[in-house]
Design brief:
Rossmann fold; five-stranded parallel beta sheet
Amino acid sequence: MAYRVMIVDDSPSMRAFVRRVIDLSGFQMDTCLNAGNGIQGLALLQQQTVDIILTDINMPEMNGEEFLRQLEAHEQYRSIPVVVISTDATENRMHRMLHLGAKGYIAKPFSPEALRGELERVLGVTT
């Protein structure tokens, strides 16, 4: 099965990098949607469905924490698993993001294998 992935990050180069790492990992991705912040991510979700969301935390207009809050507040988005990808690997930040509804957390930098493993774990993919 191929998955529909949304990458939410304010850096176009980081979005491209994450997509490239997903491709290199061998993870089965059908579609990749891109958003520059949580507001854009929510707007995309009104138009298209996704299987999983990868989001940064520090973004303008709507950061990753508020994005998670908004996803949890909307019943139609609540079931979409979210994996946070961030340079902030402190236990406090990781705990807070998981408490807000994230299902996974990956610290930058990361390997293709680590990203694939986390995506498959969160989606319940058995290999």
